[in-house]
Amino acid sequence: MPQTEPHPAPEPSDRSPAAADPAAGPPPADCVECGEPTGYPATTPGIVRCPVCEWQEAQRTACSG
Asked: What are phi and psi of 54, to 5 degrees?
């Protein structure tokens, strides 16, 4: 009976496209509230929030009237 490896090594094509292609753009900025990646590039000035924290901040400011 031939022996096989329990966990085969990942193929180079298994990597995510962003990790494989450094020219894909700058890395995403981290949210100032929770630290999760945002949809904005790291070079974006000012306060940057992830979609969840952005929505929560919009809810807070809408009700503060």
From this structure: -65, -45
Helix residue ranges, H only, the chain:
17-20, 51-62
> Using CA atoms, how far apart are residues 48 and 13, in angstroms rounded to an integer?
32
List C-alpha distances in Å: 62 to 4, 54, 56, 58: 60, 12, 10, 6
Give me 36's structure tokens: 């999760």
- What is the spatial distance between Cα 36 and Cα 51, in angstroms, rounded to a whole number? 10
Tokens 């400011």 correspond to: 61
Cα-Cα end-to-end distance for the chain: 74
CA distance 60 to 3: 60
Per-residue pLDDT of 32-41, as tens digits, reads 999 999 999 9
